[in-house]
Specification:
With 167 residues, this protein is an all-alpha fold. 69% of the residues lie in helices and 0% in strands.
C-alpha cells in the first residue's frame, strides 16, 4: 500500500515537471519560429510549478532527502540518530500540517479567479497543489510513526530514490 502511494506521489510530481518543461519548450519554439505564444503559458507554468513543488515536498519528506547538515547526526550513535531524526520529522510535520490547511484555505478562497487568456479557473490548479500539500503532511506523519516504531537498536533509515534502504 505504502509503495503504491509513494509511486503515485512520485509520478504526479514528475508528470507536472514534465508538463512545465514541455509547455516552456513549445512556447519558446512557437515564439522563435512563428512569433506566437501559447495562451496562458506564463500563468500555466507558475501553477504547474506550484503543483510540482508541493508533490515534490511530499516525496522528499518521506524519503528524508531534504537538504540537511549532518554535523551532529554523524557523531551520534544509532539511538541518538533515531531520536534526532524523529525530532526533525516532528518539526517537519508541525510545519507541513498547518501549511496544508492554509493551502486548502487559499484554494477554496480563490473563488472565480481565472487565468488571463483562457480564463481557466485557478481552483483547478490550486486544489491539485493543495492535495500535494496534504500528501506531504500525511507522509511526514507516516515517517514519524516509522521512526518511533523502529526498534531502539536499529539505526534510523534513510530511503534512497529507488525505495530501498540507504546506508
Amino acid at each position: 500500500m505504502m509503495k503504491r502511494l509513494l509511486a503515485a506521489t512520485e509520478t504526479v510530481a514528475a508528470f507536472f515537471l514534465l508538463a512545465i518543461a514541455l509547455l516552456t519548450a513549445i512556447n519558446v519554439g512557437l515564439r522563435g519560429l512563428f512569433s506566437i505564444q501559447v495562451p496562458d503559458w506564463f500563468d500555466g507554468t507558475k501553477m504547474l510549478l506550484g503543483i510540482a513543488l508541493f508533490w515534490g515536498i511530499a516525496v522528499a519528506t518521506y524519503h528524508g532527502s531534504h537538504i540537511a547538515v549532518d554535523v551532529v547526526w554523524e557523531h551520534l550513535r544509532a539511538r541518538g540518530r533515531r531520536v534526532l531524526d524523529a525530532v526533525a520529522a516532528l518539526f517537519t510535520l508541525a510545519l507541513l500540517a498547518p501549511m496544508a490547511w492554509m493551502v486548502w484555505e487559499k484554494a477554496i478562497g480563490s473563488g472565480t479567479q481565472a487565468t488571463m487568456d483562457l480564463r481557466l479557473p485557478l481552483i483547478w490548479f490550486t486544489s491539485v497543489g493543495a492535495t500535494g500539500a496534504v500528501a506531504a503532511a500525511l507522509l511526514a506523519a507516516w515517517r514519524l510513526l516509522e521512526l518511533l516504531r523502529a526498534p531502539p537498536a536499529t539505526p534510523a533509515r534513510r530511503v534512497d530514490a529507488e525505495g530501498s534502504d540507504g546506508p
